[in-house]
Design a protein that fits this description.
Radius of gyration: 23 Å
Strand content: under 5%
Number of domains: 1
Length: 83
């Protein structure tokens, strides 16, 4: 399949997909995705998988005391050298 100036092949799009997703832009507004049902379906499937993964491993903030505990452990380690 050849590409014209304004379109790209699925292979070209998929080769750039990680970079496009990482850019933070809405990839569903990409010109190729708007005209290609195959790549749009692929993105929807990947989005579903990512959402399921987020639910399996929710992001939790560490406790407020974590930094203090780390500093205390480092100081304790430094005052009792291993020998």
């Amino acid at each position: 399949m050849t590409t014209t100036r304004n379109t790209m092949t699925c292979e070209e799009f998929q080769a750039q997909m990680a970079e496009l997703v990482g850019s933070g832009k809405d990839i569903f507004n990409h010109a190729h995705v708007e005209i290609c049902p195959r790549c749009r379906a692929l993105l929807l499937e990947l989005e579903t998988i990512a959402e399921a993964a987020r639910q399996l491993f929710p992001v939790e903030d560490p406790p407020d005391t974590l930094w203090e505990k780390l500093q205390s452990a480092i100081k304790h380690e430094g005052s009792h050298p291993r020998g």
